[in-house]
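My current task is to audit a protein record that another person submitted. Please read both lines and tell me whether the tokens look consistent with the sequence. Do not assume that whoever made the record got everything right. I have pasted the whole thing underneath without changing anything:

===
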Amino acid sequence: DHDILISKIEKYGITGKDKELFKSYIKGRYQRVRIDNKTNHNTTVSNWARIKHGVTQGSVLCPILFLLYINDIPAVINGKAIPVLFADDTSTFLLIITL
């Protein structure tokens, strides 16, 4: 969620013009899908849709934004599970004891 990401950016001390720069990079993007059918040489293109979640793939900045987004998962879980964070992969282990 872009609004959550912007609030986390601010939480880490990025404010003012710097925060606005991140905000302009994250928000206000659109995407559409193009399908080329090579069999009958037709092309289908979807309507433009506003992107409300996620970050641009393949950019240098977005892995850092992703890490800012997930960095507080251990604090949120707060002992209820064991989080394992590595690069862009997150796993949680939950220990259930039944008597």
In short: The radius of gyration is 19 Å.
